[in-house]
Design goal:
alpha+beta; 4-stranded mixed β-sheet
Length: 156
């Protein structure tokens, strides 16, 4: 299959899920070696889940199918340019390449303002719109360090 075939698959999935009332305006696929191994669609509203973006669901499905969080060798096709949250997840998952259809700025044509999100996550915590306060950092770090020392996990 060609790149455009996978993107058309994502667009068709988006339309199908909207028609079914299963979710919103975007869909994603994770592809490895020419095979779709994960699909996702936006269900933020349907499931009252602010993290229910299509990319997150597609990454989770692919990770579950492969039995690993490391999705090296995989590509992601998505009907919207990923937001900062999803871009972070894509980075952590080690996706090789991302193909997208709509630009984030296209959301403005629908009355959505995502500029605030970019400014928020780019700002240091002490400059964000909601208060962030660090509590008990040393105690929490000690717990994590004991786990790392005991398990020697693969760090990503």
């Amino acid at each position: 299959m060609e790149k455009t075939d996978f993107m058309q698959h994502a667009i068709d999935l988006c339309q199908r899920k909207m028609d079914e009332g299963a979710g919103g305006y975007c869909a994603s696929l994770v592809v490895k070696d020419g095979e779709v191994i994960g699909e996702g669609w936006n269900d933020v509203i349907n499931n009252s889940d602010p993290t229910g973006h299509c990319e997150i669901h597609a990454l989770r499905a692919a990770g579950k199918k492969l039995g690993t969080w490391d999705l090296s060798g995989c590509d992601l096709y998505t009907t919207w340019e990923p937001c900062q949250m999803c871009a972070g997840a894509i980075w952590w998952a080690r996706i090789d390449r991302v193909y997208y259809a709509n630009l984030l700025s296209d959301a403005e044509r629908l009355g959505m303002d995502i500029g605030d999100l970019h400014r928020e996550v780019s700002a240091p915590t002490h400059e964000r719109s909601r208060p962030y306060e660090r509590l008990m950092g040393e105690e929490a770090f000690a717990v994590v360090k004991r786990w790392f020392d005991a398990t020697n996990p693969e760090v990503h």
